[in-house]
Design brief:
By secondary structure, the protein is of the alpha+beta class. It has one domain: Electron Transport, Fmn-binding Protein, Chain A (Pnp Oxidase, Chain A). It is 29% helix and 36% strand. The chain has five helices and nine strands; from the N terminus they run H-E-E-E-E-H-E-E-H-H-H-E-E-E. Strands 1, 2, 3, 4, 5, 6, 7, 8 and 9 form a nine-stranded antiparallel beta sheet that branches.
Length: 195
């Protein structure tokens, strides 16, 4: 790994390779949050955008992860590309995307996914599958044609990394690990870690 590269450039190169070689969801990432009780919580989501400002995904703000991120705006991400024998770990501060960004992304979603965003009370108890199907039918009837507006509780989060670690599998478990630490004055400090 070339430590002279900006971490976003290196991530972009790895991500492009993953899009070519990873069979399912190369943009899948684990997101770790922390609850009020200090207990960590982890789940898979899909990366929808990234640039030098951070890594973006969308969700229901009333979901467990949404509530946790709004209350404790720090998160860790993990990309694991098994076919490439690589992973990327990211830790950073969390902010909300702008309403304009959320509206623009929501408009690209399939209509059924837009309706689902209104119908799902994500992370809350569900009496039975029929209850969800009933809510979907009610929302679909409310928006039979035309644009489905973005729900006010549905938007995105951006994780601005303060640490990015690139891990490449090595023979005999002698892996290559390169870590970038964001400097307060801007730029990055790099270090290699023992495997």
């Amino acid at each position: 790994m070339d430590s002279s590269k900006d971490p976003f450039v290196l991530f972009g190169e790895w991500f492009e390779e993953a899009k070519e070689k990873e069979l399912n969801d190369p943009n899948a990432m684990a997101v770790a949050t922390v609850g009020e009780d200090g207990m960590p919580s982890l789940r898979m989501v899909l990366l929808k955008d990234f640039d030098e400002d951070g890594f973006v995904f969308y969700t229901n703000y009333e979901s467990r992860k949404g509530r946790q991120l709004l209350a404790q705006p720090k998160a860790a991400l993990l990309f694991h590309w098994k076919s490439l024998r690589r992973q990327v770990r990211i830790e950073g501060e969390v902010s909300q995307v702008t309403p304009e960004e959320a509206d623009a992304y929501f408009a690209t979603r399939h209509r059924s996914s837009q309706i689902g965003a209104w119908a799902s009370q994500q992370s809350r108890p569900l009496e039975g599958r029929w209850e969800l199907e009933k809510r979907v039918a009610q929302v679909a009837a409310k928006h039979p044609v035309g644009k489905v507006p973005r729900p006010p509780h549905w938007s995105g989060f951006r994780i601005a990394p303060r640490m990015v670690e690139f891990w490449q599998d090595g023979a005999f478990r002698l892996h290559d690990r390169l870590v970038y630490h964001r400097l307060p004055e801007g730029g990055w400090r790099t270090e290699r870690l023992y495997p």
